[in-house]
Design goal:
It is a single chain. Helix 5 crosses helix 7 and helix 5 crosses helix 8. Strands 3, 4, 5, 6 and 7 form a five-stranded mixed beta sheet that branches. The protein has a two-stranded antiparallel ribbon with strand order 1-2. The protein is an alpha+beta fold and about 250 residues long. It has a single domain, classed as Ribonuclease H-like superfamily/Ribonuclease H (Nucleotidyltransferase, domain 5, 2-Layer Sandwich). One of its GO terms (biological process) is DNA replication.
């Protein structure tokens, strides 16, 4: 959606009273069909989590995908969850994390076979994930391999739409804490996470973490403002990590 530019200035920088309402800009990174000025918490949010055979989206595969839909601070029932056959053995080191083995995915559909259902579940909702760059890279890579290119793709499939990532805000709001991993954040906020590293359980807990963070005044309420602040914090955090890694 378009949002008002509060400046009311021409390129010279001179202010012209009374024209601010005529000057429009598009909020970068938002889903165009969503009102960028409305509270993001009132929009439908599709919280996504994937479990995989490894960490490389170009070579590894999704073996479980969960989507939990929330709106108005409430999780909608039922959640979506797919066990997916990756077409290759699951490495033991990956099974040690999520507990999913070759036997669990035996006879399960391939990603291509359930891609239509996944796209349908994501339609008309703002995409979100905890440490979103990981889940987003895997989802988009699998959809590309499956040749899924709908004429009207959901926001999660559009590269110009940012996914909401509560980890970015957790790093800011709880910067003094040693860990902002999902399990630690859930425990800190009193959110139940009984089956950690399983897709729909992680997605549900992460969505509740996002809603809990919304109570902090440092987390903007308008959807467009949230995305712009997330972009700012992400740049800031990435620069800080570069400094940490710089050799002495």
């Amino acid at each position: 959606m378009k949002v008002s530019d509060p400046c009311g200035c021409f390129p010279t920088g001179r202010h012209y009273p009374g024209i601010a309402h005529l000057v429009k800009i598009r909020a970068v990174g938002v889903a165009a069909e969503m009102d960028a000025s409305a509270p993001w918490i009132d929009h439908p949010i599709a919280f996504i989590d994937v479990e995989t055979t490894g960490r490389d989206p170009q070579n590894d595969r999704i073996i479980e995908l969960g989507i939990v839909i929330g709106r108005g601070g409430v999780l909608q029932d039922p959640p979506f969850n797919w066990l997916i056959h990756p077409g290759r053995p699951i490495p033991p080191e990956s099974s040690a994390i999520h507990g999913i083995t070759d036997a669990d995915v035996e006879g399960k559909p391939s990603f291509a076979e359930v891609a239509g259902e996944i796209v349908g579940a994501l339609r008309s909702a703002i995409p979100a994930a905890y440490n979103a760059s990981f889940d987003r890279a895997f989802v988009l890579a699998e959809l590309e391999r499956a040749g899924v290119r709908p004429s009207d793709p959901p926001p999660a499939m559009r590269r110009e739409v940012d996914w909401i990532d509560p980890l970015t805000f957790a790093r800011e709001v709880y910067k003094s804490e040693e860990s902002r991993a999902l399990g630690d954040m859930a425990a800190r906020l009193g959110i139940s996470l009984e089956n950690a590293h399983r897709a729909k359980d992680d997605a549900a807990a992460a969505l509740q973490v996002l809603y809990a963070l919304a109570r902090d005044p440092r987390v903007p309420r308008p959807y467009g403002s949230l995305i712009q602040e997330q972009r700012r914090l992400s740049r800031q955090q990435n620069e800080a990590r570069k400094l940490w890694r710089r050799p002495s």
